[in-house]
Recover the amino acids of this structure.
C-alpha cells in the first residue's frame, strides 16, 4: 500500500470519515477486499456515489489501461468490508453489466465529469461496482449460539437470493441482465459456507466432542454431511464458471435447488442438536 493511501486511511479513521488535502469535502469510503492471490486484507480509500441507498465505486484507476488491484480482488472474493466513517458493514461487491452499467456510468459522469475523461483515456470499459449490504439477521441472543444462528441465517438468506436470481434467469430464457449479480452472490455464499464448515470441523466440533463424548457419532454424521455439501459447492462453482456470458440453463438452477435442499436439512439438524449444548455451556 502506498504511504499516501495509508495516510488517508489513518486520517479517515481518526476523524469519522473526514479527510483534508485533495479529498477535503469529498465523500469517501474505505473498501477492504481480500487479495486474490495473497488472501490478505487490502484496504483502499475510494470516492463513491449512491444509487438509492447503495454505494457505487468506480474502478477508474485514473484512466489506466488495467483494472485496479481491488477490482480483481472483489471478482475473486466478492465479500468486502465497507467503512463510511459512521458505520462499518459487510457487502457483496457486484459490478454492473450491459445496459445497467451504461446507465450507472452515465449517472456517475453527470455527478463527477472526471470519470468520463478517464473513460476517454482507456480502451477498457471502466467498471461501476455496487456495494450491496449483506442481509443482516438479528440473532436475538449472544455467545456462540447467537453467532451460529447469525451465520446460518446469512447462509439461508444468500442462498435464497441466489435461487431467486437463477429462477429469474430461467423464466426470462436466460436473457435477464443478472449475470454478474448471480456470480457474485453465488461466490459470496460458497466462500462463506466453505469457511464456516472448515471452522466447525477444525475448532468448534473437536472442542464440543471433548466436552460431550456421547455426541461423537453425531459429529461424524455432520462431518459426512459437510463433505457432501462441499462436493455440491464445488459442482455449483464449476457450473457457475461454465456459464456463457449471460446465458443460464436448467442445469445450474437444478444444482442450486439441490444445494438448497441439502443445506436446509443440514442446518436444521445442526441447530436442533447444537443449540441446547451451546446455550448450556454459556449458561
Amino acid at each position: 500500500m502506498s504511504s499516501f493511501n495509508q495516510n488517508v486511511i489513518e486520517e479517515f479513521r481518526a476523524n469519522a470519515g473526514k479527510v483534508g488535502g485533495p479529498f477535503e469535502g469529498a465523500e469517501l469510503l474505505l473498501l477492504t477486499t481480500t487479495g486474490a492471490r495473497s488472501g490478505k486484507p487490502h484496504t483502499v480509500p475510494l470516492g463513491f456515489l449512491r444509487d438509492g441507498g447503495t454505494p457505487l465505486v468506480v474502478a477508474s484507476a485514473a484512466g489506466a489501461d488495467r483494472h485496479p488491484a481491488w477490482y480483481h480482488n472483489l471478482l475473486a472474493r466478492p465479500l468486502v468490508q465497507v467503512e463510511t466513517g459512521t458505520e462499518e458493514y459487510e457487502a457483496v461487491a457486484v459490478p454492473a453489466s450491459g445496459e445497467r452499467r451504461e446507465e450507472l456510468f452515465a449517472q456517475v459522469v453527470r455527478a463527477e465529469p472526471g470519470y468520463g475523461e478517464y473513460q476517454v483515456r482507456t480502451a477498457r470499459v471502466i467498471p461501476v461496482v455496487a456495494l450491496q449490504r449483506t442481509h443482516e439477521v438479528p440473532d436475538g441472543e449472544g455467545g456462540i449460539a447467537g453467532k451460529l444462528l447469525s451465520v446460518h441465517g446469512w447462509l439461508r438468506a444468500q442462498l435464497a437470493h441466489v435461487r431467486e436470481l437463477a429462477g429469474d434467469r430461467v423464466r426470462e430464457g436466460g436473457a435477464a441482465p443478472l449475470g454478474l449479480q448471480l456470480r457474485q452472490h453465488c461466490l459470496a455464499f460458497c466462500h462463506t459456507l466453505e469457511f464456516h464448515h472448515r471452522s466447525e470441523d477444525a475448532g468448534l466440533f473437536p472442542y464440543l466432542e471433548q466436552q460431550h463424548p456421547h455426541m461423537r457419532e453425531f459429529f461424524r454424521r455432520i462431518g459426512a454431511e459437510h463433505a457432501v455439501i462441499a462436493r455440491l459447492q464445488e459442482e455449483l462453482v464449476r457450473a457457475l464458471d461454465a456459464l456463457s456470458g449471460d446465458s443460464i440453463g436448467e442445469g445450474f438452477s437444478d444444482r442450486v435447488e439441490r444445494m438448497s435442499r441439502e443445506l436446509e436439512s443440514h442446518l436444521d439438524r445442526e441447530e436442533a442438536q447444537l443449540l441446547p449444548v451451546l446455550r448450556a455451556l454459556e449458561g
